[in-house]
Amino acid sequence: MRTNTFSFYALLLLLICLPIPLGANRVWAWSLVSIWVGVMTMGMLSSYCKDWRQFPVRRLLRFAWLLAPMLAFQLWVVIQLLPLPISWLAYVSPLSASVNAQLGLKFGSITLDTYATLSTLQKGFTYLLFAINAIVLVNTPRKVKWVLAALLASGTFQAFYGAMVVLLGLKHSLVFELVLPDVATGSFVYKNHLANYLMLCLCAGAGLLVSQLHVSSSSSWRERFARWIGGVLSIKMFVRIALIVMVIGLVMTRSRMGNTAFFAATLIGGAVALLFYRNKPRALVALIVSLLVIDTFVVGSVFGLAKVKQRLEETALTAETRDEVVAWSAEIIESVPIVGSGGGSFYTVFPAFSHSNLGFYDHAHNEYVQFAVEFGIPATIMLGVMCLYAIWLCVFAMRNRNSKTQKGTALGCLMAVVGMLIHISVDFNLQPTANAMTFILILVLCGVSARMPIGTHREVQNLANTSDGSSIANASINLSEGNPCSQKS
């Protein structure tokens, strides 16, 4: 299994490197990511060459809620590319049939932008392979912590770099010589993409910190003082400092919805934890309050929260044009509600439905609308249900798991998914490969927190009795695949 170890370290390195090349939001950048994931996949598969029976098929089946929708989504994109007779196409997509008929073509496809849809297909299969790699490779509590630590390190670097660029007053980026705004963008081009990425990393870091909190109460003041000193000198203090740095970076993006999404996700996650968290750590409430009060208000007041507040107050629907883009995009959805206009085709189709010149819009600034435009309403609902099920898995893990690592991970993932679902309602944060793949990893961790046994008989029995689709047999098979039964969680 040495190549599996190589693939896992390649996964960690990928998580850190993903946002560096402009958020992997350029063709050359996400093409390199596709190659990286392909090499990682071959390394992972080669570790099972001697005995394919050891390949964790059962583990993949427990993630059918994630892999099946992702695979079905890619198959739907393939169908959008298939050439069909114009007479058939008229029944499936009158909009596409009309365009192809005007060009005098006898055959046409559902998509109105073949190249963009092919690019979408390539990225989609990369995401699917990445999810499979994460499911297979992240198979112990220790590896879960390493993954969360990688996200924490990446987010801290992005926040520190973005903040320093603003504080130093640099006008051009250090590598690509791009003109920089007066707000933090990190290695991303768009401030809201950095804000979204930091929100995901903040939630992951919060989950890592919660997983290290003491559950039992101190028996004496001496023990409590010893825990305080130990906490100051332990890795928990570094995690806490990293969270503060990321909050500074998030505030300095001046992203209205990015800050709002993190604030709302922390409130919702904290409320859910107070209701469902099993054996709540005594410091959990203090941590949530500190994230909201100390970080957001005290630290934020120093680094520009007032400017974010000012931007929120000055926001007016009369000055915003994104709401008109959403309204006009609804007309595209009415034209192709089931099949969509083709993956990645929004910027090709939208000008034909624009009522006035609003400038160039290559995205809808609302992922729900853009997915419905490009892929149809059924495909969009399918992905939405997948995300809602991930939230349920997080609640299940917090309520039923005994492992501190699994429960802390579940809380962090719950906050991340809620924050993402809020933020994508006003921006296109799933378009950069770095954000999309990080979110997919969060979804994988939702399943890991709920489904991965840690080796104790009580834990396996609890999963078997309360988790639908699981059994003691499945859990024991998963243990034989390499989960360290005696490993501390």
From TrEMBL:
One of its GO terms (cellular component) is membrane. It is found in: Membrane. It is a multi-pass membrane protein. One of its GO terms (molecular function) is ligase activity. Keywords: Ligase, Membrane, Transmembrane, Transmembrane helix. It holds the Pfam family Wzy_C. Residues 241-383 form the O-antigen ligase-related domain. The chain crosses the membrane at residues 29-48, 60-79, 124-140, 147-170, 194-213, 225-251, 257-277, 284-306, 375-396, 408-426, 432-450. This is O-antigen ligase family protein. It comes from Vibrio owensii. The lineage of its organism: Bacteria, Pseudomonadati, Pseudomonadota, Gammaproteobacteria, Vibrionales.
